[in-house]
Amino acid sequence: MSKIGISRRDFMRTTASGTLAGSIFLEPKSIAASPRPAPPSDTVRFGIIGVGMRGSGLLSTAIKLPGVECAAACELYDGRATLAREIVGKPITVTRRYQELLDRKDIDCIIAPVPDHWHHRIVTDCCKAGKDVYVEKPMTHTVEEGFEIINAANRYNRIVQVGSQEPSSVVYQKMKELFAQNVLGDLCLVEAQMGRNDYCGAWGYTVPPNLSPQTLDWETWQAPAKEHVSFNKIRWTRWRCFNDYGEGIPGDLFVHHLTGIHYALNITSPPQRAFTQGGLYRWKDGRDAPDVMTTVYEYPGFSLTLRVTLNTDTGEGFNFMGNHGIMSVQGVENPDGFSITPQDGLDHSPCTPGWPNPMRQIYARKWHEEHDAQPGTAKLIPTTNYEVPPHYDSTREHLWNFFQSVKTRQPSIEGPEFGNACAIACHMANYSYFNKTVAIWDAEARKIKG
Ligand SMILES: NC(=O)c1ccc[n+]([C@@H]2O[C@H](COP(=O)([O-])OP(=O)(O)OC[C@H]3O[C@@H](n4cnc5c(N)ncnc54)[C@H](O)[C@@H]3O)[C@@H](O)[C@H]2O)c1
Predict the structure, then answer these.
(1) pLDDT at residue 9 tops 50
(2) Which atom of ligand 1 is nearest to the CA of 55?
(3) pLDDT digits 0-9 by tens, 94-153
(4) What is the rounded distance in angstroms from the CA atom of residue 260 to the CA atom of residue 306?
């Protein structure tokens, strides 16, 4: 029986089309609920840097986990300092200087849901200060930063966990198990997609009315960016649209597909090549980032086509295609489940195109004698559906896994080498788009080449 009250049961049912389909309910790993509050010696105390869209969700979820406590928060915008206090609901220190959190001996680890141009600096500072760190996806803003993060984690022996939650999801874990059993045979092609059709989905977030140089420490916020820009409300609110801070569609959205694919297929290196086509067709509001991108990636043994549009709602998901069938996943960041429809990959009738009649008939008779199923022996090939329980939240599992690594010193479920390979795949998509060339990963030089 799982924690959420759904017992494991496999059953067969008949679909509308009359074919047999089996459903399997996936059982989440239960997050142990403490019968009583964890003793202080067993409590993980974290500080959070950045309490924005993602940070507010992570903070709300983390403080409900057993044996986990928020000790302090850091924010550069006063509105979100207020939000941090509202979420925690008891007095905590909220500062504009994250170094104050790193200096505190009573803080074990840091959660860092800051914009991407800050990831490298905060992660390396955390490692130097002896703090484990959960950094949001994509792990890096540039290729070079990834190897520096890996070095810092190793040098200071710190847990670094990247925040794309897919590896902690019971869906991707089941997919990984099934791929290891070769359920699809030779996997040759993966298609993945996502589509949105509103300004909010295209990162057109509303500017808070009180945002000003007084309520926001703009100079610090923009400090790691290459170019100095004076106070700009739009850039703070919609940073994903600008190459100085984010990586557009690849860094915000592809990264979830890529993390799920890399995890499920046990891929630990960047793809070999990438080619991107796309454009900025609709949201011409001064942004750098295109609103449509299709990238074709080449991995050893298979191709991946990844398509995102911010101009049409298309739903989202994946098709993993092999000679033994298709695995279809509904959703990406928090999928509802997936299905496997097997195929036998065999001819089901004689293959004699353009043969003269007599020759074809003789061959066909022989073929049917040898290949037709005997009455009563035909096998049904059912689709199997794997479903997650209602309200399942893989981010909660991901945070839990991080805090467990902090306690046990076991490697995190999504360490910096893994995060780096996914981030490089994102950078390759942008490199190809902005340089109008095929992006090639040079593993020896640790560089993307055109
Ligand atoms: N895993 C997911 O599903 C998921 C979802 C959304 C966002 N994200 C990631 O989370 C990160 C944050 O995204 P967001 O949408 O929450 O951005 P956001 O702009 O809404 O929030 C970021 C906050 O960090 C603060 N900040 C920036 N630099 C800071 C610093 N040096 N010190 C203190 N505060 C600082 C900003 O003031 C802002 O309030 C990004 O890397 C994004 O890709 C992940």
Answers:
(1) no
(2) 16
(3) 999 999 999 999 999 999 999 999 999 999 999 999 999 999 999 999 999 999 999 999
(4) 12
* pLDDT single digits (tens) 322-380: 999 999 999 999 899 999 999 999 999 999 999 999 999 999 999 999 999 888 877 76
Domain count, the chain: 2
Q: State CA 307 to chain mean position distance.
A: 15
- Please identify, among 138, 165, 192, the residue that sits at the C-terminal boundary of a domain: 165
Q: What is the distance in A from the centroid of ligand 1 to the CA of 183?
A: 38
Q: How many CB atoms lie within 10 A of CB 193?
A: 18
Asked if residue 155 and residue 198 are part of one domain, the reply reads: no
Nearest CA to ligand 1 atom 39: 52
Which residue has the least CA distance to atom 33 on ligand 1?
A: 75
Rounded to an integer, what distance in angstroms lies between the CA atom of residue 42 and that of residue 340? 42
**Above 90 in pLDDT, residue 241?**
yes
One domain, residues 106 and 208: no
* pTM (2 d.p.): 0.94
Position 304 pLDDT exceeds 70: yes
Contact 69, 44 (CB under 8 A): yes
* pLDDT value, residue 28: 84
Backbone angles phi, psi at 447, to 5 degrees: -140, 155
* Share above pLDDT 90 across residues of the chain, in percent, rounded to a whole number: 88
Is 407 part of any domain? no
| Shared-domain flag, residues 176 and 150 | no
The whole domain housing 290 covers 167-226+233-343+381-389+416-449
For ligand 1, atom 1, name the residue with the nearest CA: 164
Residue of the nearest CA to atom 31 in ligand 1?
Answer: 221
User: How confident is the model at residue 36, as a pLDDT?
Assistant: 57
- Domain assignment present for residue 4? The answer is no
Question: First CA to last CA across the chain, in angstroms?
Answer: 53
> Residue with the nearest Cα to atom 15 of ligand 1?
53
In 10 A of CB 123, how many CB atoms?
29
Domain end residue (candidates: 143, 165, 187): 165
Which atom of ligand 1 lies nearest, measured to the CA of 165?
1
Residues with Cβ within 6 A of ligand 1? Answer: 49-50, 52-55, 74-77, 80, 98, 113-116, 118, 136-137, 163-165, 220-221, 239, 252, 333
Give the Å distance between the CA of 283 and the centre of ligand 1: 22
Q: Rounded to an integer, what distance in angstroms lies between the CA atom of residue 325 and that of residue 342?
A: 4
